[in-house]
Amino acid sequence: MNVLVIDPSKVFRALWDRMVLRIGHEPISVTTGTAGLDALRQRHIDLVCVSLTLPDMDGVEFCRELRKQPQHRNIPVVLLTSTDDKNIRQAAFEAGVTEIHSKTDMDGLLARVKRFINEASRDVSGRVLYIEDSSVVAHVMIKILKSMKLEVDHFTSADAAFEAFQNANYDLIISDIMVEGQMSGVGLVTRIRDMEGDKSRVPILAVSGLDDSLRRTELFRLGINDFISKPVVREEVTARVTNLITNKQLFDQVKTQQRHLYELAMRDQLTGLFNRNSLKDFAAKYFTHATRHDFSLSLMLIDLDHFKRINDTHGHLAGDTVLEHVGEMLRQNCREEDFAARFGGEEFLLILPHCDLASAVAKAELLRKEIEMLNPAGIPVTTSIGVTARPRGRFVEMEALFRVADQAVYEAKARGRNCVVSRRFDSREQ
Question: Which of 373, 376, 302 is nearest to 340 (CA)?
């Protein structure tokens, strides 16, 4: 990384050279604006730090001269000054200065250079959906993107690109606004932003030869994330693409972490089933949906017999093994639409939509036999199961149905355990 510093102070240049060498980069220091422009013509420069006060021109004038050269249009320029003069600051930014930094804050300036170096050397990977019907422009852009080690799917029409987008995952969309086919680039943006889920949030970089501020504003309103004018410049494309993909992937990481944390909060880590907390989020939806569409819904409570005796006799690790095996068995024997949760220490709860009482009793008897045959770690296990169902044509709260199933479990235990007891819901239970 080559950093050019233009400053007339010998002391400042010496201090700066030592600081840049310490972080492993090459300092290039000159005293005048003219010498700085010569250095830019002779060498590759990644960043320029220029003092406002120079012997032959000021830093603002230097930046104007620099920006006249197309190859230097995108080089970051930091103006070194301690002035708070608003007119000077405005003139500096109009001339193309990237950032203004206090000349006396050497540590802060070094930190800024380090950030720039890290950003410039940041690796990016991903898959890009690219829409461009000009073969010349496409050749240039694809060459830039592939030099960044990005995978590129190129289409000349938005219609074909949208079909591909629906069937694959992309980290970025780059589209010309005017492309061949029935769908324009603007139409593509609208269609993607109207989709549901994560696909609607994929970043979009618009490209156009029409550098119209009103047009750009409208595109941002429609949902693009960034804009590049033609002809494209490698440095600008690299910076914008890197930022968009990095931000998208960071957002994806956050979403994945959120889902993981949600799973941790809603899942019982021992059995892999839902836990008691999840009932608030899910169970009410099952009952509301069953009431709205008036379909059968059964509730089953499974209580392992003499579980305290298992813990006392064989130890808690053996008890955990029993629970793990029961949880795995329930997962394997439940439908995708069923809700299975570890309700308490040795209690499990099942909500079975589209399942009437007779079918639920048959299901419970099957589960009872499966548990009896488990014999985890050589430990015999049996269970008492209570089953009930919501009556058709009525609204029934989960708490009321749960009480009926709980009473059925107590009755199963009173009958000697290792059996299934069902109870019909009585309106007086509500």
Answer: 302
